Each structure stands twice: as C-alpha cells, then as structure tokens.
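Example 420, ligand S-adenosylmethionine.
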Amino acid sequence: MMPLEKFEILLKRTMGLDIQSIGRPMLERALQERCGSCGIDELDAYWLLLQVSEREQLQLIESVIVPETWFFRNREAFIEMTHLLPQRPLSGGQPLRILSLPCSTGEEPYSIAMALLDAGLSPRHFRIDAIDISQRSLDIARQAVYGKNSFRGDFLTFRYKYFALNEQGYALSETVRQQVYFMQSNLFAADLLAGQVPYDIIFCRNLLIYFDRAIQHQAVTILLQRLAPEGLLFVGPAESALMTQHALTQVKAPMSFAFRQGAPAQELAKPAAPPATAVFTRQPPMSLLRPRSRPAAERIIQEKQEKIKASADTAPALLPQTTLATAQLLADQGKLSEAANLCEQLIQRHGASAALYYLMGVVHDAADRKQAATDCYRKVLYLEPAHAEAMTHLAALLQVQGDFAGARLLQQRVRRSTES
Ligand SMILES: C[S@@+](CC[C@H](N)C(=O)[O-])C[C@H]1O[C@@H](n2cnc3c(N)ncnc32)[C@H](O)[C@@H]1O
C-alpha cells in the first residue's frame, strides 16, 4: 500500500471524502501540518496516533475540509424556498423545520433565516438546525461576525438590514442568530439526528461534490430519510445532475436546484397563492431584491431587448455590465430561453465573454441541456482558465456523462485555484 493510501481510506471511511476531489497535495500538506503540530516526524507514528485518538482524527479532518461559503450563495434557492413553503405553521400547526447540512461557518443557515423573516414569517414559525463536521467552522458560525469575503455579488441590501459594522467585522443581529441551532456532527454518524422529526426543507449544498459515486448515493439516502414526504431538498448547482440518478423530481424553478421525493409523474403542483390573511408573501424577500422593483426591472429588460434589436447597425454597443445583469435577471425569472438568446446576441455584438458563456452554461444546465452546458463551460475555461465555478459545474457534468478522469482533473484544478 502506498504511504498515503491508508490515510485516504481513513478519510473516506470517516467523513466520506474522495481525496481526488481535493487532490493529493492537499492531503500531503494536511499531514505535514498535523505531524508538525503533534511533534511527530514519521508518518507511521502519526498513523498509530490516529488509531487511538478520535480527537486527532477530527483535527486531521479540520485540515482537509473546504469551508468555502458566503451569504445567499446561489440566491435563487432562497427565493424559491420562500415560494414553496407549506402553510402549516400559519394554521396553528408545528413550526417549519429546516436543516442546513453542511452549514460551514453559518452563512447558509443565516441566509435562510433572513429570507424567511423577510418573507413575513415570524420567528416562532420556523426553526433551523445547522450541522457541520468542523468545530472550527461552527465556532465562527456561533460568533456570527463576518468579513467582506462572506458578502459577494451585487445583492447586499440584507447587510444594511441585519448587520452592524464593528471593529471585528459585520456582526449579525440577534433576531437572525436566535433562529439557528448549531450542532457538530458527521453526515455519516450512526446517531445523526436520531429521534428527530423529519425536516420540511433540507439544504445540503456543495458537499456531495467531495464524495465518489457510492458515497454520494449513501449521503442522499441518509438525507432522504430525514426529509418529510412532501419536503424539499436543495443541492448545489454542480450537484443537480447527480440527483437525477435518485428517485427525485426537480422542482420547476430554474436555478434553485430544489428536489422533491418521488418520480416526475408524481410531482406536486406548487402551492396555491396564500390567502389574504397569510403572512407569507409570494414576492421574493426584500433581502434578495435588487434596489428596483420587479415590474420596473421587467420594463427595463423589454426596453433593452428592443434597443439591442434596433441598434444593431447604428448605435454604439450597450455596456456589457448592464446587459449581463439583464440576462441574469431573465434567468432568475425562469425565462431560460430568453436568457440564453440574449447571451448569444450579446456575444455576437460584444465578442466572447467568460461571464456570458458562464451564464449561458448555467441556463442550459438548469434546462437539462447537458451538451450545450458542457460546451459553454469549456468556452468559459478557454477564456478564463481559473474560473472556479465553471470548473465545478463542468466536473459535475463530466461525472454524470461517465468521464470520471476528466471530472477528477477539474476538481483538482478547482482545489488549486481556491488555495492560491
Ligand atoms: C464548501 S462547504 C459548503 C457550505 C454551504 N453548504 C455552502 O454551500 O455554502 C463544505 C462543508 O462541508 C463540511 N463537511 C465535509 N464533510 C462533512 C461530513 N461528512 N459531515 C458534515 N459536514 C461535512 C465541511 O466542514 C465544510 O464546512
């Protein structure tokens, strides 16, 4: 057996990690670091320590995890969640039960809480359990003070509403913090959530990509056992294609990557609009909106599309930034063909752009056009070789298409690019 192989097997057995997904160099560095901290020179001696110390096993796990996360990551999932909520708590039933696993440093469960509060739920209407294997990440989550890296993209209105800037960073308000209950656990722990009532909503995003096919299957089975029969499972964009191998139906809400149990024929209709007295709103929560209202945004899209048509020969080119946002908005609204068409028009007009090809790739992915999505992601990487999101999405597509070696190479590139 190669010297590192037994460590790889141990990590797969304990946390499900497929070392190919993060690359061997990462494991080598982690082992070096841990040997250094324990004052051990020999790998064999460190191996013996791991056999007797559960604490050291957890330390090794801390050194190989990828805690990357940010607020409202893939924000369409949060919008769609507020659209699909059951009405039960409003009619005096039990509060909604939501699970965020893995929650990493807390940005995901706190985003869920902000979205639900903005959608009009009162704090007593829902509870969020948040689980991660990493104690270090959970300590940060409980502290709830965040740096700039946790806030990405253009949709940051929620920061003004729910955070106060202090010397340490952006401190989250108590109203949001008290909705989330953190707990350290391993997805594969035999006693995970033992005796708990099933969840209405489970977020398990950006974890399955670190597992091989067999472990992914095991993980999804565990999650489905903890999901209520009518519940919703949200996964990451790069994991969506993998879900089609399970008896799950993708909710017809593009870009949210939400699934229900059951074959497609049994898909449930979206719940009807809530009665006038209900506190849920069908509008996207405030924290997710751009500063302008949707109708205004739609008008602007129409004007821009007309402008693009009319200006083909005469007017100067539109600014790519504005038009990219327009295409993104169309995609967010589920107008996938329009979004893809606009991207193509813009590429013809402004030339190839990684951002446009990436958006077009995500749109094709959401519409299950695998080959078109693959082509777009490849173009992104030709234009911008370090585009981590395109690599991650392409890796997931290659895996589904059976190109495991190609998928692995890309996952390793992602790993290297996020480390540098
Ligand atoms: C990339 S983060 C994803 C966080 C968040 N869900 C998101 O999408 O932004 C992956 C997290 O998975 C956690 N993790 C890895 N293996 C795990 C396991 N077997 N059980 C629970 N958490 C695990 C890591 O500690 C890390 O915080």
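Summary: The radius of gyration is 22 Å.
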